[in-house]
Design goal:
The protein is 23% helix and 34% strand. It is of the alpha+beta class. It is elongated and about 80 Å long.
Length: 366
């Protein structure tokens, strides 16, 4: 396993800058997820690490070697693609062994590696089958097995689960995480699915428009988003955002004024609370709950509103209701039937509010 370092990495296509001077340190043995919307530069970054794209400027180091000009085969990496890239006319064994045969690895060593990978991925009973006879999940395991037998220093995953259905994606997330724990190899995983990033990675790197917006442990990124974009992107359903401005309350303490509402703020938790400053107030759906669902009124801001829509998810229900000129999403953890139009009292947890500058989007939390 190897440390991977990106220094001022840039990729330019004609007049378009796809990756804009990013810096990133990936520690040995870690599992790092690059996540962001389509076109944010995450796959381009991965392909530069892999040697499938040239570097316009900057430096890539793998195990303290600058690899900018090294061909992909000499970088000590193995890549798992979205499309699997298997040979359908070959057996599972031959697909996994192909690269080693081309490299003229001794037959006994090839057999040892293939059977070890098959055991790890529970493919022992499928080695003589053609990959065209396998399910999507089995094919993805074969693709991972082909990467394992190369015994790489770094695993690269490019949206490997995108072609699978929801249930199989969930199962394969567990498979990949278990594989990482077993092998201990450095892994870099690209996805647009924040659920994959949050559940699998030790470190999440959120990208937008070719730059890194925030990098950190999944829980830290979720709890302390650096800006409005990260706050909206990480979390499902998305964080509620309300436009308002800072004001001084009747007791002299700061509050955020919203259309028809005012919510008191704890000045010890935020900076830049000058009166008149335009802000965005953020509250996650789980921090807006119907009264009687675990939040005490003295810890919260209370409001009443009719429910305009519900989404039942079995173990929880999402409620949509008007508030302060917008529609907010509330998460009810102990579901009960709620009729459209039913008026409920809602509580907003003031201790878990987020505040962002309306112009820059930067978080104002201290």
């Amino acid at each position: 396993m190897s440390h991977v370092s990106l220094k001022q990495l840039v990729k330019v296509y004609g007049r378009q800058i796809a990756v804009k001077a990013i810096d990133l340190e990936i520690q040995k043995g870690s599992f790092v997820a690059l996540v962001g919307p389509s076109g944010c530069g995450k796959s381009t970054t991965l392909r530069m690490i892999a040697g499938l794209e040239s570097v316009s400027h900057g430096e890539i180091r793998i195990a303290d070697r600058v690899v900018n000009d090294l061909p992909a085969r000499d970088r000590g990496i193995a890549m798992v693609f979205q499309s699997y890239a298997l040979y359908p006319h070959m057996t599972v064994y031959d697909n996994m062994a192909f690269a080693l045969k081309v490299a003229k690895v001794p037959r006994e060593e090839i057999d040892r590696r293939v059977r070890r990978a098959a055991e790890i991925l529970r493919l022992d009973d499928y080695l003589d089958r053609r990959t065209s006879q396998l399910s999507g999940g089995q094919r993805q395991r074969v693709a991972m097995g082909r990467a394992i037998i190369r015994e790489p220093e770094v695993f690269l995953f490019d949206e490997p689960l995108s072609n699978l259905d929801a249930q199989l994606r969930s199962a394969m997330r567990v498979e990949i995480k278990r594989l990482h724990h077993r092998l201990g190899t450095t892994a870099i995983y690209v996805t647009h699915d924040q659920t994959e990033a949050m559940t699998m990675a030790d470190k999440v790197v959120v990208m937008r428009d070719g730059v890194i917006e925030q990098a950190g442990a999944p829980l830290d990124v979720f709890e302390h988003p650096a800006n409005e974009f990260v706050a909206r992107f990480i979390g499902s359903p998305a964080m509620n955002m309300l436009s308002g401005e800072i004001a001084s309350g009747a007791d002299g303490r700061p509050e955020v004024r919203l259309p028809g509402e005012a919510i008191a703020l704890d000045p010890a938790r935020f900076e830049g609370l000058e009166s008149g400053r335009p802000v965005l107030l953020g509250a996650r759906p789980e921090d807006i709950v119907p009264e009687g669902h675990g939040l005490l009124p003295e810890d919260a801001h209370l409001f009443s509103a009719p429910v305009v829509l519900t989404e039942s998810l079995g173990n929880e229900t999402l409620l949509f209701a008007p508030f302060a000129g917008s529609e907010i999403t509330s998460r009810m953890q102990r579901p009960r039937p709620v009729a459209d139009g039913e008026v409920l009292n809602f509580l907003i947890n003031r201790e878990r509010l987020h505040l962002f500058d309306a112009q820059t989007g930067r978080s104002l939390r201290q």
